[in-house]
Design brief:
The chain is of the alpha+beta class. It has 9 helices and 15 strands. The strands form 4 sheets. Strands 3-4-2-1-15-14 form a 6-stranded mixed sheet. Strands 5-8-9-10-13 form a 5-stranded mixed sheet, with no helix packed on it. Strand 8 and strand 9 form a beta hairpin. Helix 1 runs parallel beside helix 2 and helix 2 crosses helix 3.
Length: about 325
């Protein structure tokens, strides 16, 4: 990562931010052995140009991980390009198109990854709601407001698919519940199909699920998606919190997996609190008198959720070869 010749205020802010990152206790990943995977809703990223300080801070946070699902990435990618200049030439982005209506909110979904640890494997697709034939047309009875996006990746010898989305908000819990249930059903059907590219699936996003016992979360997990053990009780370092929003009281952001992938998730996972409190905003933006809301439009109103995944499967492959030879 190359922050370059920054101002003294940004340098001091980066030092303060690094202390907050250290408190999250994100372990380093090891090449061909593990990767750190995260989901981050960066509030309306690209709608309004961020300050130079915010761009440096966002890059510093993203640089803690190897593969990050980004939601609320907007149609304008100029701020992403500014962040990428700091991250360096080994970083790349695979991203979806945007929908320009109110439901789509001009949002993309992106997967940002460090090619030194993760490579893109070729599959990139937006998910369509199931269709039925009506006359000569094939139409959906309900919709994803923002199409979920999935891509295939490889880390070491471990191939996997990641699906990310930003589920609808608004007053209609029934609509949100129906959309999450539709996603659960789609995953169940598609990943049981004989033609599926890979059954190692990670599902992540801002699902707007307030708690793990809420009916919206139950709709999302009704076909077997599971929360990694390290994220059941969400923590910042060794401190348990109730959510990944600035108020730490809502579990909107999730990383989930199919049961077959459970063994790949290590005991490391949590969230990264870059905010701490209103009183600590000045440490990052000393010249600006930001309110909490104004702060969220510089960094975000969501914290990243992260897990570490074991990608070393050589031992399993060798064991399988031996077992197959004995049959």
């Amino acid at each position: 990562m190359h922050h370059g010749d920054v101002s003294p205020d940004i340098a001091a802010g980066l030092l303060a931010l690094r202390k907050r990152i250290e408190a999250a206790e994100v372990p380093p990943s090891k090449l061909d052995e593990s990767i750190n995977v995260a989901i981050w809703n960066i509030r309306e990223f690209g709608k309004k140009r961020r300050t130079n300080a915010a761009i440096h801070y966002i890059a510093e946070i993203l640089g803690q991980f190897d593969l990050i699902g980004l939601v609320e990435l907007r149609d304008n990618l100029e701020d992403y390009a500014r962040v990428c200049q700091i991250l360096g030439p080994s970083w790349d982005l695979v991203y979806s198109d945007w929908m320009s209506d109110s439901g789509g909110n001009r949002e993309r979904v992106g997967f940002l990854f460090d090619r030194r640890a993760v490579t893109f494997n070729g599959l990139a697709a937006e998910i369509e709601a199931p269709r039925g034939k009506k006359g000569t047309e094939y139409l959906s009875q309900q919709s994803f407001w923002r199409a979920p996006y999935m891509c295939s990746f490889r880390a070491g010898n471990f191939d996997f698919i990641v699906l990310a989305t930003h589920t609808r908000w608004g007053d209609s819990l029934e609509g949100r519940e129906a959309e999450l249930g539709m996603l659960a059903d789609w995953i169940d059907t598609r990943f049981k199909d004989k033609s599926v590219e890979d059954t190692d699936l990670i599902v992540m996003g801002d699902f707007n699920t307030p708690t793990l016992d809420h009916k919206t979360f139950k709709a999302l997990t009704r076909r077997g998606l599971q929360t990694p053990d390290s994220l059941v009780n969400l923590k910042v370092g060794d401190i348990t919190v109730r959510g990944s929003n600035l108020g730490k009281n809502a579990r909107y952001d999730q990383i989930l997996h199919l049961p077959t992938l459970k063994k790949r998730f290590t005991n490391f996972g949590g969230t990264l609190d870059f905010y701490v409190s209103d009183a600590r905003i000045k440490e990052l933006f000393p010249e600006a008198d930001y309110t909490r809301t104004e702060f969220t439009y510089q960094l975000s109103d969501h914290f990243p959720i992260w897990v570490q995944i074991d990608t070393d499967i050589d031992g399993q492959r060798l064991t399988q070869i031996v077992q197959n030879a004995k049959k």
